[in-house]
From TrEMBL:
Gene3D superfamilies: 1.10.8.60, 3.40.50.2300, P-loop containing nucleotide triphosphate hydrolases. Residues 133-146 have a biased composition (Gly residues). This is Sigma-54 interaction domain protein. Residues 120-150 are annotated as: Disordered.
Amino acid sequence: MTKALILDDERDICELIEMSLMGQDITCTSVYTIRAAIKALKEERYNFIISDIRLPDGDGLDFLSHVQKHYPGTPVCMITAHGNMDTAITALKRGAFDFINKPFDLKQLRSVCKAALKEGHSQSGGASASPAAGGGKKTAPQGGGRSSNKYELIGDAEVMQKVRAMISKVARSQAPVFIHGESGTGKEVAARSIHHQSNRAEGAFVAVNCGAIPENLVESEFFGYKKGAFTGANQDQDGLFVAANGGTLFLDEVADLPLSMQVKLLRAIQERAVRPIGGDREEAVDVRIISATHHDLARRVAENKFREDLYYRLNVIGLTMPPLRERDGDIAILAAHLLAKLARDAGYPLAHLSPAALAKLEAYPFPGNVRELENILERALTFVEGDTIEADG
């Protein structure tokens, strides 16, 4: 039996949630104080928890910390007042699975609860949440530097092990992730890895280069349009948000978005709804946002080139991709992986690097990072004679 614990001092809110989840075969237990919630958790097992932030006997964020300590892996969805995004962001940063705005959009409520239920099952192997044994948290497999997973970040360097561990952790949340790193460091691969380790893996992963869309087309690309909305709109067209509904929208080079679009993007993220150009109503969307750039976005904010409110909304969880020059020992691993991939894709015989060629690569700083390494190896593989790539090849 699927069970949810609801913590809110407004009884009508609890009743509304109970009735909304009844159709999903979820049995709800409602409590009105933190003390009662802690007692309920000791007596019963729950698949997920919905908790208000403002409660008569304490702070819902402190209750969130209690759940994370004593019932690790149990998703907690926080209820926030409409428009209070600062509180919602704080909750996500402190480990909340997601948040729900008051007044409720019932479709959004059910969608969030469905995702939380799926996450609860994935973290507990199908069993309901129960008190922690020994206080240890369950974590997703980290994977090794030579994983065959095509969305795995290859490398054994300590900085890459930390990146993979971070990805496994943030994949369990619904919070927006902001990835920063130099060009060619693998920001999109990291975003795809987050998506494919999350409970949204069966949904779409939609990637868009924000700097590649002409400014006059940005709004229609993101939000879609209705037939007749403008000259040439001969039929309805879904935008990127609708295409990513139920999955992940990856905003690459988000710093390149024009200011006029930034405010519209912020509203869509906050409201979880989009209005197509020419449309007369908003359409609810369930999308996780992952964004990335090689620019210093904080500096862009200081220069008034990027909205501060959008920056904080995107940068709930930050992830930094290290440059290749800081990844000790990874060039040999990456070179072997890339040569095998390139040979397979092009139908070439497999080749390997001579010790001198590897040493030459390891002495090079790679300003273009992994992408530059791949380009160098592709050229070498194209012109190599035999199965060994020499240093002067």
